[in-house]
Amino acid sequence: MHAITSVTLDDAQRVIEAGIAKAKEINSPSNIAVADAGGNLLAFARMDDAWLGSIDIAINKAFTSRAFNIATQQLAGFAQPREQFYGIHVSNHGRVMIFAGGLPLKSGNSVVGAVGVSGGTGAQDQEIVEAAAAAL
């Protein structure tokens, strides 16, 4: 068996379906994006009644998690004033998101993509993204 180098469309759809199931369970209509190993959008779903403004945020949370191989919630702590990555949110043409809802997707120790969720509170987005990532 060879190592997975990037999530597939089937993987991405499974991740999104798990995210949708959790979002329905906690009543938080969401936008859910999956990026491939290159940080490019692979799959996306906008649930009924999910905020339009959260479409780009979900996509950019997935990008951020893959670009830096870190949970966006963790990056947020490093991006505060006087911390090592203060100002990072203005890099990459403003695509870097520094709040909860983005997670790298891993196969073993390798990052093979990422998932981003936006549409609820930070805690809701985090709960949904964790359920989504677990489906990989």
How does this model look, in words?
There is one protein chain. This protein has 136 residues and is of the alpha+beta class. It has a single domain, classed as Beta-Lactamase. It is built from 4 helices and 4 strands. It has helices spanning 9-25, 54-68, 72-78, 122-134; strands spanning 31-35, 41-46, 102-107, 110-118. The protein has a 4-stranded antiparallel β-sheet. Helix 1 crosses helix 4 (122-134). The longest helix is centred in the N-terminal third of the chain and has 17 residues, at 9-25. The radius of gyration is 14 Å and the shape is globular. The two termini are 17 Å apart.
Based on the model shown, name its key terms.
alpha+beta; Beta-Lactamase; 4-stranded antiparallel β-sheet; 4 strands
